[in-house]
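Subject line: Sequence and fold of a protein, written as structure tokens
Enclosed: The protein record, placed directly beneath this head.
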Amino acid sequence: AENVTTFVELGPDGVLSAMAQDCVVADDVAVFVPVLRKGRAEGESLTAALAQAYVRGLVVDWQAYYAGTGADRVDLPTYAFQRQRYWLDDARPTESAASRTGSGVASEADDARFWEAVENADLASLTSELAIDADQPLSAVLPALSAWRRQRREQSAVDGWRYRVTWKRLAEPAVAAVSGVWLAVVPAGQADDALVRGTIAALTERGAAVRQIALTADDLDGDRLAQRLREELAGEAAHGVLSLLALDERSHPRYEAVPTGLLLTGSLVRALGEAGVEAPLWCVTTGAVATAASERLRNAAQAQIWGLGRVVALEHPERWGGLVDLPEALDERAAMRLAAVLAGLGDEDQLAVRTSGVLARRVVHAEQADAEDASPWQPRGTVLVTGGTGALGAHVARWLAGNGAQHLVLTSRRGAQAPGADALAAELTAMGVEITVAACDVTDREALAALLDRVPPVTAVVHAAGAGQFAPLAETGPADVAEVVAAKVAGAVHLDALFPDDALDAFVLFSSIAGVWGSGGQGAYAAANAYLDALAEQRRGRGLAATAIAWGPWADGGLVADEEAAEQLRRRGLPVMSPELSITALQRALDRDETTLTVADVDWARFAPAFTAARPRPLIADLPEVRSTLAASTDAPEESGSLSERLAGLTGAEADRVLLDLVRTQVAAVLGHNGTGAVEAGRAFKELGFDSLTAVELRNRLNTATGLRLPASSVFDYPTPRALADHLWAELLGDDIPQTLPALAEIDKLEFVLSSVPTDNAAERASVTARLEKLLRTWQEVESAAAGDGDDNELESASADDIFDIINNEFGRS
């Protein structure tokens, strides 16, 4: 009577479904779906019921269904007959980050405590573990068990996302000579500083010919700076470039939120490229990093050079030397170690020279967040959230509101005018929390101070404001850097200054993995986030609350704009993290009062090969998953000789085929395709889906495979795989590029079509052969007439199989 045609039965055995189905046996429109079936596994019955409901048109929340299983979404084929398999051979859920990293240890320990309490009938331990009263009925115990199990599963996943930066002492380096011409770029006005003089002396006293250039705050023009570099070298080839620009921590006169040294370093990187200086660039800092818990981080502003440098290493690996942090005073032993670093310590490119020796930076798994070592953190009173109306800020606000905060102050540049701000405020108010949504630019210290004067005393701060960036260094000017850096750095500086005492329960800085290991196209963003990590260490050194978390990409907001962007990240080994689990990670970091932490769901089997494609990256080399992944990739036997030597031994057509296959294979790897079938030789890279970041990755891969130093613009200068392969031919074998004439291109297409003719279809093969014979006979007659040659054409006596063999031998392409 109500036009209901689909019924879902919640209950045991499906009794009602059987009875109701019998009532409407004549009506084949109605469908009854029992969720549980007698004699069948519950999981199987539930899955079948959901599938049956789904195909009837009911909306099923599949995200909720797969929550906590570690399952990932995969693309479906765009065409049903491409015959490319997208399904897993094993139907079990894909492995989670926890299982990938072996970080289920904490969860196993929690399970062990639970089952030990059960086996020993230890009621006190069991009720403590489940956080329930011993006198509660079973109806209360079951939800508690369910919540306990879900919490342990989430904690296990989150523990697999936790990483920390450590420092590894290297063997004492041997005394090294530093040869060749070196460019030393220093801040004007600091050329006579003891550290500058000592650093340059470390080079000159060990054999280097140093050409010193001093830069002022006005030397930001890349073209003019490139000309100065060329004039200073006067035709000589530089062996290395040493930048001490980081030492200029003064705010730039035009871009006050940014240190002059940071802007000058960015301009230097661009100018070196424009001047054609291929020598490795080394950036020197002092006190920008702390290599031990007992060491005080002195200069957080200089830490921005470390963030920027990691991006230079990714975008320009062929002309990157590294980062080296020096002690405040450079004695003879430290100078000797610096010279050894600049002469080269293998592939190490993130180093610190200390009294104890030379230390190398490493990313390792953080220790498990065992609840027994934690003291639960809970917000109270008034909490300030910068960027509070943004996607990440909104997630944080909901968490704070649900955990005890009485008053939330949410700031953003647009305040209540920001999209969704009204709805968020209404949602939080309904949770019983007082809300203040304020339009306040945190880069304006006076405005921020005035806001704090208008609200009750703040007990905790979460700095989630920031601006994203997606542009390579070559396209990033000083104004771009200032805009990106200001939102995070200036805001953090002002908050640090306005909360100088220990009155805060928490001072949380939302940082990014871009500042930990770099991210192509995010030089300024990486610099800003490296500062936040350093600031947290500085505050902690002063005895104040501080927690900086370098986040991987979040789902449902943040800098991941849409599903396409999330899919690109997943292909590169960085699947987006659910906000719920990210908040769990935040809670656990505060519970343990941690200072700096990296939280990211990294699929190292995907991430490590791409990250190390252009050059080795010792930074991640000590992670067990990276070691096993890279070891597996080097197990394949290497072909002897260089690519040039291989090509030299091939015919023109064979060499052309090898180069085109090389380009198409690397393109497929960058774009995440399973094979080269989707990479057409004549299709533009932009149509294939390339952007500036994937262009850099392709360039890096081709440099590694060919030994060349291709510019990042190669994809745009040679816009198709065919054109890029021709360019590789010119670079590797000379200017005699094989010309693919239109007629030969059509023969390529013909050969592809002929390969699909079945060998057992005699009639079709005979018809095709006859047409080809006629075509070739006409071709030969024209050639013979032009050459005055009337010899008989041997093709006239060829059989059908002979014709196909001739085509395969003469015009074959893989």
Summary: Confidence is low (pLDDT under 50) at residues 89-99, 635-640. The two ends are 66 Å apart (CA to CA). The chain is about 45% helix and 15% strand.
